Amino acid sequence: MKITVIGLGYIGLPTAILFAKYGHKVTGIDLSSWMTTQLNAGFIHIEEPGLEQELKEALLLGNFYASTQPVSADAYIIAVPTPNKADKYQSCDTSYVEAAMTSILPYVKTGDTIIVESTIAPRTMVDMVQPMVEKNGFTVGKDIFLAHCPERVLPGNIMHELIHNPRIIGGITDACTKKAATVYGTFVQGEMIEARAGEAELSKLMENTYRDVNIALANELAKISNRLGIDALRVIEMANKHPRVNLHQPGPGVGGHCLAVDPYFVIATAPEQSLLMQTARTINNSMPAYVVQQVQALMAEREGNQITIFGMTYKGNIDDMRESPATEIRDKLNEAGFEVRVFDPHVTELLLTGEEACEGSSLILVLSDHDEFLNIPTNYTDKMRDKMIFDTKNIVQSVGAKVKYVNYGNLHKIKISQKEAVVQV
């Protein structure tokens, strides 16, 4: 089968390479000529374990080629970004999907399958994509088979999860669902869940909204516990021993291309009915400012003015900084007058080593849960002006003997001791 994949980002590229691995002739399309040149030379532009080796093998087999121009195929897969619009409810910007559809329609022929993997607002397939196909003289479900098949993978384990995770196949018609399932059936070993397009759209959005709401509950608990002088992390640990409770962990905010974005696609379509989702977004969006507020309190008794941020990505062990709360926190700290240095071993453009970034600092602020931060070596902290770590991700497992360690569990104790020390003076 000939397959054209539009968009070679964090989802499109692994998908294209996996189809190639399983014997299909795949053309990957992206507007970046630099990117396509790199891919054809065997080099990937994102951090994903095992992906570059899989690319090299696909190139050796002659099953993958990257281009800036679409080509004719039997199946077309659209995996382009869908950012938020700058409107009241930050609705779904489908302009990239529309542009991708426009680019492939001159090549589409009777019997072809078009699959949109991009995360989209409810009814996008019926209200926008289907009319574009029908305007070209095709009957969906008879001439052209149209489906929404959202990805549901974890960065850092994408190749495995593309194969083994359940896959929702949301066709415009039953025939569209069957046809799209045949495309994915060449490699998907997980359950293929047959659905209609609208069900698939909303299901994908609710998966991420569920997590966003639960994280908001944990973040609100962290604020409440800090106010009451109670260990929030201990509360969560005990509550989760109940067989029907699974509280999430608090953090510095919510980032990434899913959790920080997708709830708005639902909110914008039904603002009067989505009050809980809106509240959750407000809480999670408030966390960067809350972290900065706590940092200011911790730094009030420090002599120095330098802070070292550990981690700029929105989650651990990847290089993805999209929507990362660390970016907002860094900017707010700079605006507050602090000297900020950054260390992130997964972001290549950040050149400082951990030791260099920490020298002269009065606080390490952990914002990403990279494995490299599990144990903070003494050569990082030995040259600090004040040896203190504020771990917003509760990731650090060991620090030096004279390092003061702070997280959402003991944050209230540190600040109380500072106030008492001032009174004693």
From TrEMBL:
UniProt keyword annotation of Cell wall biogenesis/degradation present: no
Keyword NAD tagged: yes
One Gene Ontology MF term: oxidoreductase activity, acting on the CH-CH group of donors, NAD or NADP as acceptor
A single GO BP: polysaccharide biosynthetic process
SMART domains, per database record: UDPG_MGDP_dh_C
A Pfam family hit: UDPG_MGDP_dh_N
Entry keyword set: NAD, Oxidoreductase
Residues of the UDP-glucose/GDP-mannose dehydrogenase C-terminal domain: 308-398
InterPro entries reported for this sequence: 6-PGluconate_DH-like_C_sf, NAD(P)-bd_dom_sf, UDP-Glc/GDP-Man, UDP-Glc/GDP-Man_DH_C, UDP-Glc/GDP-Man_DH_C_sf, UDP-Glc/GDP-Man_DH_dimer, UDP-Glc/GDP-Man_DH_N, UDP_ManNAc/GlcNAc_DH
Domain of life according to the entry: Bacteria
Protein family: Belongs to the UDP-glucose/GDP-mannose dehydrogenase family.
PANTHER family reported in the protein's UniProt record: UDP-N-ACETYL-D-MANNOSAMINE DEHYDROGENASE
The protein, known as: Nucleotide sugar dehydrogenase
